[in-house]
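INPUT
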Amino acid sequence: MSMSSSLIPSKSRKPRRPVAPFRRHEPGTQPDYFYPTYRATTLRAPSQPLIFLPHTLSEVTGPVFGHSDIHANDQDLTIQHAGEPLGQRIIVRGRVVDGDGHAVSNSLIEIWQANAAGRYAHAKDDHAAPLDPNFTGTGRTLTDKDGFYSFVTIKPGAYPWRNHDNAWRPAHIHFSLFGPAFVTRLITQMYFPGDPLFAFDPILQSVPDERARQRLVSKFDLETTKPEWSLGYRFDIVLRGRESTPFER
Amino acid sequence: MDLTPTPSQTVGPYLHLGLTDTRSISRVAGDGAKGERVWITFRVLDGGGVPVPDAMIELWQADSGGNYVHGNSGTDAVGFCGFGRLATREDGSCTFETIRPGFVPGPRETVQAPHINVSIFGRGILKRLSTRLYFAGEPANAADPVLALIPDERRETLLAQPDPAHTGNWIFDVHLRGEGETVFFDV
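OUTPUT
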């Protein structure tokens, strides 16, 4: 019998599995919504306090992606066109783990970035820097069984934005991750070590905790670097872990 | 190794390049999915009431039986994936096709009314905003354990309204800030 949505089901209808909630963030380790030096937040950040939501089945489940969601060349941004893009070729490699250090395996990662001149292949980007016909700047991959991923790309350029006088974004690659649940969804940015623009960038500086900010900065990695071919950067990502359940104590 | 979770950063204005130009999902439920078919139009507005043309909305919902497609593959046998993703248009809107979700177990012996879990991303949004969409007129809303957490005067911000001109169509306005501000959750 099909159930009409206007009827509340009997409580015994479905077996109830216990829900293992995810750990909450430590104060200061994530940006606040309202951060006026990043001007756009002043009209887009909520003014009311958030309502604390205990985790239910809706929060601890999430979409799953697989190999059918990935195409050939998705993880090498330098071979997606007839020729090679201009710029410094790099390999970005890292491991995705949860808050307990366990691998987040077979999980979708999507990236996008500007070209070497600091221009996005996007109709709304009007920065007066050249487009590169051989570079779109979009990649995706799945983590392997141990949580590792890698991309081949070119180092993006810094670019100006209109947030404040003479504002420039440090070079960065956007990273989108899902993890195992609705609440582990994360979209962030990876930066490059030693960038002199860090101190002037309100988007990076919106993270109050210095150690948490450092998590967004990749490290030069000689192990990932390929002789006579490409520099390597390491960028590890930590998604939220589960709270320990009474059974695990 | 420090296991503090990696901080969020804004998706910025060019999110389409990586997330929606080739990877939009407007149909959360394929043709074979059981249930009442609905079309939901979201509209995102900023603190000045101006439509936000560069936001992205993601949905996560149960099927009509109240089950989440989780843990094995992304789509069940009848073409229901439970996940949707669209960028907003110039007028701040986007429209998903889906089915009305079923009842999902809540904490203790409660039952959650049909709802869709919603994430909002955008330039000027430093970390994902989370909210829920419920259906106006649904009798089960009165006993929903999550709606019960919300002060009376703000509960209505989570109710999608039926479009009187088009049967099966619903409208859900997201006010990011200020008057009529949508309830957002700390998840």
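end of record. Chain A has one domain: 41-48+55-243.
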